[in-house]
């Protein structure tokens, strides 16, 4: 359900890989949650989303057929002992939705610094689904990403892989 908050100038963004919002900028946490999306082998709806840790259900109906959309928790897919995120391989991915006061936000992929006039909220790695699976878009995973506590289950639902650019200039 889309929500709005009366505010002079603000925007929201998802802080992927972290349970909190950056403390170095003027942000307020809207909620903390878990990354989720469509199973890596399924088609249909499926962009990455940040589900709140405290869901509410309205008129829950148990469905007994296959006419529904399925959502799965997301995991890091990084080689064990890799320079980045090796210790997070197969762990579930936290996220937080942040309200940035007095500014507009966007992700600038492929850079570690901002263009003039912009302020960095956080720095990270571009991640997305494996190139042979159904796409879900790209996210900026915080370079200091953390795991959800006791979440090493390797259920392989929605997955986050590092992106490798193959561009022609």
Tell me what the structure shows.
InterPro entries: Ca-dependent_lectin. With 169 residues, this protein is an all-beta fold. The protein has one domain. It has no helices and eight strands. The chain has strands at residues 10-16, 27-37, 49-52, 72-76, 94-101, 124-128, 138-142, 158-162. Mean pLDDT is 85; it is low at 1-5.
Poorly predicted segments = 1-5
Q: State the distance separating the first and last CA atoms.
A: 41 Å
Shape: globular
Percent of residues in helical segments? under 10%
Strand fraction equals 25-35%
Give the overall pLDDT as a whole number. 85
Give the helices and strands as they follow along the chain. Answer: EEEEEEEE
Rg, rounded, reads 17 Å
Largest sheet: 8 strands, mixed
**Classification by helices and strands:** mainly beta
- The number of domains is 1
Enumerate how many helices there are, as a single number.
Answer: 0
- The tally of beta strands, per DSSP, is 8
Topology:
Blueprint: E1 10-16, E2 27-37, E3 49-52, E4 72-76, E5 94-101, E6 124-128, E7 138-142, E8 158-162
Parallel strand pairs: 4-8
Antiparallel strand pairs: 1-5, 2-3, 2-4, 2-5, 6-7, 6-8
Notable traits:
disordered N terminus; Ca-dependent_lectin; 0% helix; 169 residues; mainly beta; eight-stranded mixed beta sheet
């Amino acid at each position: 359900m889309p929500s709005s908050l009366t505010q002079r100038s603000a925007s929201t963004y998802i802080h992927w890989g972290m349970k909190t919002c950056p403390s170095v900028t003027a942000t307020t946490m809207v909620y903390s949650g878990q990354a989720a999306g469509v199973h890596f082998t399924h088609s249909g709806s499926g962009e990455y989303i940040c589900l709140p840790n405290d869901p509410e259900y309205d008129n829950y109906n148990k469905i007994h057929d296959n006419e529904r959309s399925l959502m799965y928790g997301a995991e890091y897919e990084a080689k064990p002992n890799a320079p980045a995120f090796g210790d997070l391989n197969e762990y579930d991915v936290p996220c937080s939705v942040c309200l940035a006061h007095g500014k507009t936000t966007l992700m600038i992929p492929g850079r570690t610094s901002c263009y003039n006039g912009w302020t960095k909220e956080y720095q990270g790695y571009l991640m997305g689904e494996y190139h042979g699976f159904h796409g879900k878009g790209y996210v900026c995973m915080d370079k200091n990403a953390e795991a959800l506590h006791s979440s090493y289950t390797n259920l392989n639902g929605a997955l986050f892989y590092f992106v490798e650019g193959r561009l022609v200039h």
